[in-house]
Amino acid sequence: MIRRDAGPTVVVGGGIIGLSIAYELVRRGRTPVVLDATPRGETGETATRVAAGMLAPASEADDEPAAVVALGRDSLARYPAFVGAVERDSERSCGYRDDGTLWIAVNRDEDAELERLMRAQARHGLDVRKLDAAAVRDLEPHVTPRAVGGMLAPGDHSVDPRRLAEALALAVRRGGGTIHAGWCVDRIEPSPVDDAGWRVGGTEGGWRNSVDAAEVVVAAGARVTAAIEWIGASPGCEVRPVRGEVVRLRGAPLVERSIRTPRIYLVPRTDGELVIGATTEERGFDADPTAGGTMDLLRHAFVAVPGVYDLVFAEVSAGWRPATVDHIPVIDRLAPGLFAAIGHYRNGILLAPATAQLLAEFVVGGERPPALERFAVDRFRSEGGNP
Fold first, then answer.
1. Are 35 and 181 in contact (CB under 8 A)?
2. Count of domains in the chain?
3. pLDDT in tens, 194-209
4. The CATH number of the domain where 335 resides is what?
5. Of 185, 223, 260, 350, whose CB is crowded by the most CB atoms within 10 A?
6. DSSP string, 316-371
């Protein structure tokens, strides 16, 4: 039994998953300490700051494991109350929208692809509706006149990840939690004090530092693999970075809801920003956007919504999706007092409320919620360490 007086609950990682877990711990009476490696002191760096913020279990159902789709639907159902609580506790807007997603097809091949997507989504019991070209233009007049058909996923929503991260950080601090920016963890080990939990070591502002914790939650995104190796987790639990580039434009609003094609998505923000994404590349931790990636994103966006030509270029950025070998997150207890919420791949924003609330229940109550069984680390403990 680990003594609760051994220290606070430390959350390693200041992205959307780490901040959401810290917030849910605050709501359950804990005073977490968040260690965020972001060097500039901005919470929610890399994947969180680059993410478009689509909350789209219907639109993503064809590409995701069934367990992730199920958790995504659960998490989306939690989102309105989650955002409401965060906005109340932080007094900040999170840019939450419930306008749905409109898929469009600009030729017969893409229309056939939408038919296939609809069949896949129907197998998951998701609400999607086929539209003809006239219905597409009625919903979104600025969509290309070349559209031959479309598909509406009314249950898809969106949120602004940057604003959500900022609101979460403020809510955590107001609730008594602490966030240390520029704190790069490089060691997690049992505390040298008997029954005292864990010691988390690293560098803060270039200086060595450590903190003792009753519990540690590892939620460090794409750079978490080394942490998993330190604590002796099973083979197959490693996380790799999958790079994605995103372009942001600004100007008069062109669309009311998220727009998708088989090649591109466009997500509108309440402040007039339009997020266009995203590439998928296995290039390690290369953070430099490329001319080719930017060109492809803008070209596909122009095909879908020609009015983007007149918008103002605001930003191009690249981040790293944290992916496990089976593209299913690990949300589990790895050892007494040591938990992980890692490998959310391209669904970290969508899965944040369910992940945070279920894991906080696990940390505080000590029993794994049944909904997390499919996300246990034990799935990697078969012969050869494969799922």
1. no
2. 2
3. 666 899 988 887 788 8
4. 3.50.50.60
5. 350
6. EEEEEEEE-TTS--EEEEEETTEEEEE-BGGGHHHHHHHHHHHHHHHHHH-S--GG
Q: Do the beta carbons of residue 105 and residue 148 sit within 8 Å?
A: yes
For residues 338 and 367, state if they share a domain: yes
Give pLDDT, residue 231: 60
Q: Determine, yes or no, domain membership for 135.
A: yes
Name the helix (H) or strand (E) containing 105.
strand 101-105
pLDDT of residue 384: 47
The alpha carbons of the chain give a radius of gyration, in whole angstroms, of 21
pLDDT tens, position by position, 39-49: 654 544 568 88
Q: Residue 387, Cβ neighbours under 10 Å: how many?
A: 12
| Cβ–Cβ under 8 Å, residues 285 and 321 | no
Q: Tokens 């095909």 identify what position? A: 303
d(CA 329, CA 17): 11
Last residue of a domain, one of 271, 289, 321: 321
Tokens (6 digits) for 293: 């990636």
pLDDT tens figures, 224-239: 765 555 565 555 578 8
Digit-coded pLDDT (tens) for 237-275: 788 899 999 999 999 999 999 999 988 999 999 889 999
Buried b (16+ CB within 10 A) or exposed e, 183-196: bbbeebebbeeeeb
Q: Which residues span the domain enclosing 379?
A: 4-82+161-239+325-385
The answer, yes or no, to whether residue 1 has pLDDT greater than 50, is: no
Q: Which three-class secondary structure state does DSSP give residue 151? A: strand
Quick one: pLDDT at residue 122?
78
Q: What is the pLDDT of residues 49-70, one digit of tens each?
A: 899 999 988 777 677 788 998 9
> In what helix (H) or strand (E) does residue 35 lie, and over which residues does it extend?
strand 33-36
Residues in the chain, overall count: 387
Adjacent-strand bridge partners of 244: 319
Sheet holding 129-132, edge to edge: 129-132, 149-153, 101-105, 258-260, 265-268, 273-277, 240-250, 312-323
